[in-house]
Amino acid sequence: MKKDLLTLSDLEKDDFERLFKRALELKERHKMGITDRPFAGKTLGLIFNKPSTRTRISFETAMVQLGGTPIFISTKDTQIARNEPVKDTARVLSRYMDCLAIRTFSQDLLVEYSKFSDIPIINALTDVYHPCQVLSDLLTVIEYKGGYEGVKVAWVGDGNNVAHSWINASAVLGFELVLACPESYSPDSIIMKKALEKSGSNIKLTRDPVEAVHDADVIYTDVWASMGQDDREFNEIKQVFEPFQVNKALLSYAPKDVIVMHCLPAHRNEEISEEVMEGPRSVVWDQAENKMHMHKAILDLLINKEL
Ligand code: CP
Ligand code: NVA
């Protein structure tokens, strides 16, 4: 049976552990200059309905470095543009390829691809979740903090797709997650409720960024308006989100060894100050690099049916 990666709530703790272990192994081998070719003859299709620098290119590079071939499937140049049904596209692509990574708006579209495909479907970001991002971010947390157990992550800003994947991860792994979000920009209440119902979950929502960063090991932020939310009026969100900016003043309430994370792309001096983004606590470039190592592990485990 093929498995997909649509949300982190579908994974067990063991799955996370296997992904971290494999990503760290593959990263080490890459740094040592060892060439692995487990994907020789394999293809990864990429369907992206939203822009991407990191996710797309790190998946493509991951595939190439492991001997496989990524094929970017342009939605405007294929019959997808002329509304060929997903159930048809999914079945046809399943006959050619070994895996599909999809970035789109609706989570339901991914579920439909999953239903009609015989190959693993990877969520490369939807309006609701960004699971691959949080998997690679956890790899960065493990590297900097020696693990995720006992770690406190402070999410500061919009309760968006990346926040939802952090909520899912915390519900499975049990690390402390405190989200400081403006009231009208809180995470989805159903996602929160489901996560809080899991035994051992340690998730809290606050309106106070200072409370969130107190004792935090990790401070994480993301843009005030995600892709597809262009109807958010800038002056309005600026006013709401300004008290949630990750800046030097906010960092003064956090431990000295806190790390600051951002999935990127960042809007400097909006959700994060230039000073913090470029400062000594920021790990954003290691974070971006780890996407490639984690994507190798995701592909490896999914294609080899080890997830
Ligand atoms: N972090 C992330 O997903 O970046 P891209 O939008 O560039 O893929
Ligand atoms: N929340 C952001 C993440 C981008 C990687 C968005 O969806 O636009």
Average pLDDT figure: 97
End-to-end Cα distance, whole Å, is: 10 Å
Cα gyration radius (Å): 19 Å
**CATH homology group of the largest domain:** Aspartate/ornithine carbamoyltransferase
Shape designation: globular
The sequence of SSEs as H and E is HEHEHEHEHEHEHEHEHHEHH
What is the CATH fold-level name of the largest domain? Rossmann fold
Number of domains: 2
Largest sheet: 5 strands, parallel
Question: What structural class do you assign from the helix and strand content?
Answer: alpha/beta
Bound small molecules, deduplicated: phosphoric acid mono(formamide)ester, norvaline
What's the CATH architecture name of the largest domain? 3-Layer(aba) Sandwich
CATH class of the largest domain: Alpha Beta
Main sheet: strand order: 7-6-5-8-9
Tally of separate helices:
12
Q: Which bin fits the share of residues in helices?
A: 40-55%
Provide key terms for this protein.
307 residues; alpha/beta; Rossmann fold; four-stranded parallel beta sheet; 12 helices; 9 strands; 13% strand; binds phosphoric acid mono(formamide)ester; binds norvaline
